[in-house]
Structure formats: C-alpha cells, structure tokens
Amino acid sequence: MKKFSLFLALSLPFLSAISSQDELSPGLKKAPLKANAEPYDGPLFEKLPPSKTGLEHSNPILPDHPMARVYHSSSACAGIAIGDVNLDGKLDIFSGNGPEKNSLFLGKPDGNGLEFENVAAKFGLEGEELEWATGVSLIDIDNDGDLDIYITNYDFENRLFINQLKETGKLGFVDKAAEFGVNVVDGCVMPAFADYDRDGDLDLYILTHQVYRANGRPAEPIAIIEENGEYDVAEKWQRWFRVQEERREDGAFQYTEVGRPDYLFRNDGGKFTEVTEAAGITKGKHWGNSSTWWDYNHDGWPDLYVGNDFSSPDYLYRNNGDGTFDEISKESLRHSTWFSMGAVQTDLNNDGLTDFVLADMLPTSHYMQKASMGSMGARLENLKYVDGARQLMRNAVYINTGTDQFLEGAWLSNLAMTEWTWAIRSQDFDNDGLNDVFFTNGIPRQFNHSDLPNLEHEDLVGRTHWSHYKGTEERREQNLMYRNKGGFQFEDVSRKWGVDHLGMSYGASTADFDGDGRLELLVSNLQDPLSFYHNREQSGNRVVFDFVGTDSNPFGIGVSVTLKAGDETFVRQLFPAGGFLDGDDTIVHFGLGEHKTLDTVSVEWPSGKKQVFRNLEANHLYTVTEPKGDGPAKSKPIESRKPENTLFESSKALDGFTHVELEFDDFVRQPLLPRKMSQLGPGQAWADVDGDGDPDFYLGGAAGQPGQLFKNHTKPGAKRIDLLPEPVAAFADDGMFEDMGCLFFDADSDGDLDLYVASGGVESAPNGSSLRDRLYLNDGSGNFKRAPESALPVVLESSSVVAAADYDHDGDLDLFVGSRSVPGEYPRSPKSVLLRNDGGKFKVVTNQAASGLEEIGMVTSAIWSDVDGDGWSDLLVALDWGPVKVLRNRKGKLEMAADEDTGFADIQGWFNGINGADIDNDGDIDYVVTNLGLNTQYQASIERPVLVYYGDFEGTGKANIVEAIFEEVDGKVVCYPFRGKSCSTHAMPSLKRIPTYEQFAKATLPEIYGNTLDNAIQFKVTNFNSLVMINDGSGKFDVKPLPHLAQISPSFGVTLTDFNLDGRADCYLTHNFFTPQPEVGAMDSGLSLLLRGTGDAAKPFEEIWPKESGLEVPGDAKSLAAVDVNLDGLNDFVIGQNDDEPRLFVNKSGSEEAHPIRIRLVGKAGNPRAIGARVTFEVEGMPAQTAEIRAGGGYLTQENTDLIFAVPNAADGKKAAVKIRWPDGAESEQQVDAKGRFAKLTREG
C-alpha cells in the first residue's frame, strides 16, 4: 500500500492528504476512499492501453534465443509485483522479463495513479544478458520500512536489490543477494515470503521447477549408480536427469528429465540460513509451479502449500510452531490436482475460514480435451509411483470445514476446468461481499496435442524439448473471470467484465491504484503488453486496510483480519507474494455489498498482538499500526482441529471389521464402462434377532468374505458400545457370494426374524450360480441356518435391494428384490422380481401382480411406502439412468404411475438410495433420493442431457457402451462422445478409420457412429442432484434439489430421522464413490453431510457443517442406518464403507427442552414388527410427527423398527396421542404418558 516517508520532499497536496487521516483510536487512522469517477457504462474492467498507462513492457517469444528452451517450462514468462517503492503515495510496478529487460514503473507523481514511467535502466534493474527473470517480489526484506526487490532467475543467480531510500534519503538499489545468502542458481520459479517463525522478519521459500540442459540429452551413455538399493544417474548428470522407474523391455535402465529441489531460507536478522530439510521440507526433486503461504487452521502460524507439476506430489505443510513442518496432504485432502499450477488462498463463502483454489490445465471445450489429452493410460500408470494424495486432472477448490478434513468442490463451483491455467487471483472485484476468482491462461506452443509424435530418447539427444515444438502454433487461450454468486456457485463473467483477453497470460497481481477501494488487475503476457484492467465498478460498499508493523514486519505480511458486518463474517490473510507469479499490493480489501457499517474488525499480527475495532464506517481506508510494547504470548500451533462438543461422536466399536473386496477388473469385459459394478456394497440390516430388546446388526460381505452378524451387548444408555461378532457357520459357508441388500423379517411366520441376503456383483457370468439370493432361518435365539432350497425360487440376477411389505394384505411379508445390472452387459436392464410369501415359500408373481416391474431398469434402491394414504403400501423404485418410479398399490395389484403424475417427468438420474419421512409435518410421507451430485464432470440438464448408448457399433456382434454429452459450439448445441479416441478405439478397433485425434475431437457423435446409434439401447440423465420429494398427499411430488453442499459428492446412503428432538425430520447423507472409470478418477470430495430439518416444504433442510456435527466420513461410504444402538432414545448413525471399516457415530446431541419416547408396535403373526404401519404421534408443544415402519430403505439398508418421537419436557404429566394405521389398513388410537420413554403398543391397546 501507499506508505509515506519523512525522507521525501512531499508536495503540499500529499501532505494535506496524509494529515486528513483521522485518528479514531490508538493505532487506527482513517481516510475516505476516492469517490466514483465520471459516469461509466462499459464493462466492470476497462482495459487501459500502454499509450495511456506508459506500461510498455512485453515478454516476447524469441524462438531462437540462446535460452529459448525455457519456453517449454513454467518460466516462459515473468511475473509482476506491485508496491510503493519510492514512498510517494503512488503505487509502482516491477515487471520481470526473460529474453529482454526488466522494468520498474514508477507511478507519476502528478498522475491519477494509472500512469507510469519506466526507470529500470536508471537504477540498474534491467538485468544482464541471459539473465532470465521469472518470479518477482516487492518486499521489505531488511525491515527498514521501504520495499526491496527480489528476483528469481532461471538458472542464473537470483537478485536481491536492497532499496536505499530509508538509508540515504534517495531511491536507489544495491544487489545484496550474495551478502544475504539468497543468490541461488537453479531452475527457480517463484519466491514466497512469510514470517513462518514469527520472529519479526520475513523468511523465504524458493520454488523450483526444472533445469533444461542446453543441448538436450548427451550422445554418450550416462552411467547408472547404485547406493543403498536406490539407483540414480551419475552425479555429474543429476542436475538434469534421473533414472526412470520402468526399465526397457530388455531390462536395461532408462533415464529421463528431473525436477529440482525447493529451498526454505530462515531470515536471521538480515542473513538467510537454508533450513529446508531441518524444517521438514522435502529436498526431493520436483516440478514446482506454485508455493502459497496460507494459515489454513487459523492458529497464527503460516502453513505452506506447494503445487507440483506432472507426477510430482503436492505438499501441504502444517507449521508446528517450532521451526518445523509436518506434511499432511494425504490425510487432509484425499486428492490434489495432477498438473498443479497456480494457487490462491481465499474465503469463498464468508464463514471465517480460508479456502484454497488450485489450478490444473483441463480445457473447457470438448475439442481441446479430446485433441490434447490423448491416451491417459500411460499417464495413469505413472501415478502409481507418486507418494502423496491421489492426483486428478482438474482444478481443486478446497473448502475449509474447520476440521482436519477439507471438502473439495471444483465441479460444484463451476471452477473445475479453466484451460491451461497459470496464475489465480481471488478478490471481491465487484464489491458485492463475495470473493471472485480470476485465471490466466495460454502457452507458447501446442505442447500436448495428441497428434504430435511422442518424443523418444533419440529425439532428445542433442536437442531440447523446445526445438521439437517451436514450429507449432501458439496456443492462445482466453483468460477467465468467475463471479461468486454465493453458496459455492460461480458464473463466467469474463466477457461481461472485459477481461476476456485471448493470449498467453502468466502472472497476475491486484492493487487499488487510484485509491477508490476498487481493485485493479494487472496481467503479464507472452508476446503482448502487460494487461492493465482499471476497475470501474459503480456500486458496492468496500473498505481497505493498510498496516504498519512495529514488532512484526513493517508491512504487516501475515496479518489476519476478521471483519463482522451484520450476520456475515469475512476473513483475509495478507500473503501478497507467492502462488504462481503473484505479487499483490500489501493491503487487505473487503467488498461489503450493502453493509455500510463494520460491526467489529479484529486484527491479529504475526507477533501475537491483537486489536479489535468497532463500528467503523465503510468506504474508507484504515491505517492500522501495531501496538508497541509487550503483548500476549503467541498462540500455540494447532496440531489437530478435531472438533469438540459435537452433535455426534465417533465410536471405535466396529473398528477392525473391514469390508474386503477382492480385486476384479470390470473394464476387461466392458472397457467403456462408466463405473465399476463390482464394488457397490456393503449392505446392512438391524433388528432384534435374539429377542433381548436391543437391535442387532448384519453387515454384508464382499465376494470371498462372509457377512457378519453382530449381537448387541450394549447396556441401555451406556457410553460404551458393545457390538460383538457372532460366528455363523451358514454365513461362512456362503462366503463366495457378494452381499448387497439384506433384510430381517419373519419369513415363516414363527414370530422371530429371519434373514434374506441379496446376491449381487458382476464377478460371475450372467445367470451364474453365485447370483442366487439366500434365506437364513432364525431359531428364535439369533442362530441362523440356510432355509431349504425350495423356500426361494431360482432367480439368477445380480440383485441390489430387497424390501418387504404385506402388499396383498394377507398377513405375511412379501418381498421386492431389485436387480442392479446384467454382468458384463451394462446398461442392459436386468430382471427384478416381486416375491409373494405363500406360507414361508416365495413365489415370483411379478408379471401377475406388477406389470412393468420385471424390466423396470437398473434398480439401485426401493422402499415400500403408502404415498397416497389409502392404507396400501406402494412401491418406490430408484433407478440408474432413469427416474424414481412409483407403483401404486391398487388392493394388491401394483400399477406403474406415469412420471408426469408423480413429478418425475423429464427427471432422470443415476439415483442410488431413497428414504421417506414426513419432512414438512403435514401428515403424509415425503422422500429424499440420492444421486451422483454436481461435483463431477458429468453435468446434465433437460436441454443438455448425458446419454448412454449400448449396441453393436461395429457389426461384429459385440455390444459396446458409448456415452455422450452436449456442448454449445458457435451458438448451436452439439452432441459429442464423452470418451476419447484412445479408449474408444481400444474398445472398438474400427474407429481406427478416424486417423487423428484432431479429427476425432471435431467429429460429432453421429459423424463417428452414424446410424448404428438408431439400433442401440439408449438412456439419458437430465438431473444429477440429490433430491427431496415433497408429497402433496396424493403421491404427486414437488421435486427440488437438496442444499447445494449436499451435491458435493455422489451420495448413496440416506436416512431421515429427528436426531435433535425438535419434532422435525432431519436428513443425513453419506458421500463418495471411489471406483468410476480411471480417467474420471475417484469421486472422493465429500465427508457425508447432516441436514437440519426446518419443517418448511419450501426450504426443508439446512446444512450442518462437520465441525458442528462431528460427522466426517472420507471413505467410500455406502449403506447408512439411523438406529438407537445404546437405547438412550437418540438415533445413532452406522455407515457401511466399501473396502473399509464401518463407521459408528453415537448421538450426543440431546435436548434441554425435549426428551425421546420410543414406540414399538407388536403386529400379528407373520408380521410381528408391524412392517407397513403408519404412526402419527401428537403431543402438546410439538408438531404432529408421522413415520412409517419399514423393512428396507435408504441404500442397501434396513433400520430398526422402533420409532422415536420427540416430547416437550413441558408436556410431562400429560397424555400423548398415538394414531396407528396398521399394515392391513385398520386404524387405532392410543394414549401414552408423555413423560414416558418407551411404549409397547398392540392392536388391542
């Protein structure tokens, strides 16, 4: 920011401006921001040409320059840094250059802040011949109050120009890099400064990428050496090369290019000491593209994110507060970008927690994706050697939850693909109170076009990579600006805001050049002049803070500011130098939208000192001076942010009981399969199988692993959960089956609960014997044995869900068994079955009793529920590549309702789970259905659905899968294949007729597959939201999305329960799906999500973040049950995870205003748990609460049949009415003591 020096002879107007700052309180001065200029009706940013600004500076591409090999790297173009180097109140700009001269632009003293003069030559800052500048920073390295210049050069001595202004009274610079110990010579990219040890001076992290050998690879062989079992090239070559992991076919070693190690320097009072390894920072050789200081856990100690290119892992270093760091990326992030580029720390949702955006290089258009991504197989193979978070080729938006785990929401936010991105800046450019995000894009040549030949060893002997590409075209790409609409939703406003430069842009920096509180944007380009964007926004309140450190560094680097206005909390951390070629001015800016008053402003200094200011006016510049003298002790570093006093607490009762999948490659039979069908379990079922009054538990096993029965030995109300495994010989004998849905019910009308287990998976051939479902009979004490073969018909389908109801009102329970897929023939519809219970033997009656149900589609979930309140259980079926189907029960006959009559016209999804409750307290049952969500590259709408075709596209008799998407091109919506040329040709060799990636990328779906599409099976998806279905009482639904955050990952399990005893149904969702096709990568962005019920049909749920709920499930979560494990009257949550341990969360929420009552119905013989009953509980002080007793729901889950209702404590001593409609339609009403905790009700009362 603009700081002023007594050494300067300031003009009277400037002295007047300074003195006009009002001192509000010790350490705080204010001055009004400049008022709006003349009326303006153009875009938000006005691009000012060099003729107006004087910024005549360009980074040219000189193809034959002696250093031209650098154009193939992230050092092709230099960055920009902004600050007031001569302390005259005008901002100045330092801009680096590679092949030509650096520039120092001083703001003209008599100008408007937007006019500059280049004085680099005058001060000896232009650089020497072959001195190739990359990153630049204006930083006060010696704590004397003026800005020095640090330049990282590519393979040339770095420079540190110490500003002489404070010492001599005159502007001048002396290179003291060697004296300070930072004259590094390496493949340097970017310096990043922060006071990581909080000792008052700025430390330095130097990011490196690669050093390109001037003449490429040598003609002579390179010696390979071995040390302690590790192989490397001989020492003389280690600067440029390393041994490859994979050997040649003849077993000989190969070598390849290598990255370079980064450097951490500690500032010891003006002398720098390299402490990289001592501090816990890796000295491994990597390809760095960004280094960003970021206090992610808000403990006052700067942490560091290092983004690395290619197959190098990214690193998140947590500051331990003792001069060392711990690397925590794998446990905190789960995945990172693959080709990590620029990065920025920013609070995207005004929750007071700093989020993080990290760029990759995924193109925005179908054409560029298919022309440039080529064969991903070899690239994916290389990732197995990466020791870090799994890498995915797309941007990442790390959402800070306030716990040790981050959510990741790039697709959800519309920020996942932004071209070949370099720098990112995030500021509130339109002053509406939300931080926007800007991306720079473009590269010098077509480095990764898939039609270019692969470079073999011989191609690089005596030649650099650049020499192979310099004859290709420039790859100019548009820069992108995304406006933050709130709730992690962003819209592309690049053209609307006037920043849609088409070029090769690299560095970007922000500052308020004209003092109006509206941030300008400055961008460095290859071939083109600097882009200077003058912010002309006319609306929005704002505030700017400038800092004067005393014990901390003079410009306040590392300061944290938390601002509260109304019910919003804003936070900023001041780390202006870092990322990729970023060098902002040292101010903190807040856009405030409609807020005109700042209720509180809290400032935390690196020294540990804190200041709080209240009731400040908006639209001012505030200068905050750090208090002198002793302050509070520095905050202690936070090792873990495990939340305390949460609503739920994780239990270890099920630790060690891991669901174990055998490796099976679904893609061998179907190479273009969208996702694996072999890893969709486990299911779970809860019921009191031994008659002791508490719920027991069956957890399904994977193929090769028996399911497991757990008997509940937990004492009622106990904190300790005791679920003990019970060996069952019959289960062990059936370990070859893949368990899916499982269900406890009375199959043989003997009064105890038997077990049905659906057999699924795709490991067998169609109609394989391992697909037969199983029935186990209970002896009344919880001991199980296989039922006779005659009890079940021979149905050999890959089953998914099983759900029970007395659909024909004959007194016993019948079954719907939904089938998931045909092994090896996805997405062909399998056959689902309706099984009627005839005296303990089950008969297939699908076609007689439920027309259209047999081939309804690929069934993922189903529940029996009375949607229209007529006393007969209807069937709701969730489908993959389809809608939610409703089959209305017409007195024992199931009739398929038209989608138009249910609210599902034009709504098709990849639905997974469905559950029901009275969400809006109106007496009927509403539903939630889970789906893929909005945080994957699959995006669909009615206008642009996602399609799948299945047919013989080659005339060979073999069917294949073809997925398709729509994209707007030149104003027309065009259909393209979703998959690329390489994988499609592997599956269908006839596609070799399209010889180039270029041609394949330009071809539409019909141009590739022609009329073979007409004979193929076709399905579509129009909606990937997880949905809530509000019932009007007749079975017609108002279908709307769950809250946006619920869409952050694929959701399977869902339960609806009043966890907090407020009389309203809450919702809990599991998240994630780890086994899509490899190019898409694991969908692991979620942690599960608890939604608080509001009772309002218009907005039925509100998000509860993990730091409040305590619910964090980063695994591949599938089944989910709400069940009162310890009989304390509060439903706990149990999650089955694929290929992982189950998770159990004990409900600790309770309520000071209400208590629970558990209602247990006793039904007739054949249905002792009254499956299918509907219960309405009415008590004074609570809305009427309605629930159904079901057997099967959610995703592969059966919950316990006891119902829990909320009772106000104020109602103690009164009676509550329990209205029951029994499974056969009969109705009764009984009174219970509202003070009670348990009531067992029969039809007789």
Mean pLDDT: 95
The tally of helices reads 16
The strand order across the widest sheet is: 1-2-47-39-44
**Number of DSSP-assigned strands:** 88
Low confidence ranges: 4-19
Main beta sheet, described? 5 strands, mixed
Task: Please write out the topology.
Blueprint lengths: L11 H8 L2 E4 L2 E5 L12 E4 L1 H4 L26 E4 L8 E4 L7 E5 L8 E3 L14 E7 L8 E6 L5 E5 L1 H4 L4 E3 L1 H4 L7 E7 L8 E6 L15 E4 L2 E4 L7 E3 L11 E3 L5 E6 L2 E4 L13 E7 L8 E6 L6 E5 L5 E3 L1 H5 L1 E3 L5 E4 L8 E4 L7 H7 L4 H6 L7 E3 L3 E5 L5 E3 L12 E7 L8 E6 L15 H4 L4 H5 L7 E2 L1 E5 L5 E3 L9 E2 L1 E7 L8 E6 L5 E5 L5 E8 L11 E6 L2 E6 L3 E2 L3 E2 L4 E6 L3 E8 L5 E8 L2 E6 L22 E4 L32 E4 L8 E4 L8 E5 L10 E4 L2 H5 L5 E7 L8 E6 L14 E5 L5 E3 L11 E8 L8 E8 L11 E6 L2 E4 L1 H4 L8 E8 L8 E9 L1 E6 L4 E3 L2 H4 L6 E2 L3 E4 L8 E4 L16 E6 ...
Parallel strand pairs: 24-27, 39-47, 49-84, 81-88
Antiparallel strand pairs: 1-2, 2-47, 3-38, 4-5, 5-6, 6-7, 8-9, 9-10, 10-11, 12-13, 13-18, 14-15, 16-17, 18-19, 20-21, 21-22, 22-23, 25-26, 26-28, 28-29, 30-31, 31-33, 32-35, 33-34, 36-37, 37-38, 39-44, 40-41, 40-45, 42-43, 45-46, 48-80, 49-50, 50-51, 51-52, 53-54, 54-55, 55-56, 57-58, 58-59, ...
